[in-house]
Amino acid sequence: MEFRQLGHSGLQVPVLSFGAGTFGGGTEFFKAWGASDVAEATRLVDICLDAGVNLFDTADVYSRGLSEEILGKAIAGKRNRLLISTKATFAMGKGPNDVGSSRQHLIQSCEDSLRRLAIDHIDIYHMHAFDALTPIEETLQTLDTLVKSGKVRYIACSNFSGWQLMKSLSISERYGWSRYVGHQVYYSLIGREYEWELMPLALDQKVGALIWSPLGWARLTGKIRRSHPLPEVSRLHQTAEAGPQVDKEYLYNVVEAIDEVAKETGKTVPQIALNWLLERPTVANVIMGARNEEQLRQNLGAVGWNLTKDQIAKLDAASNTQPIYPYWHQRLTFANRNPIPTWMP
Question: Which residues of the chain are modeled with pLDDT < 50?
Answer without folding.
Answer: 345
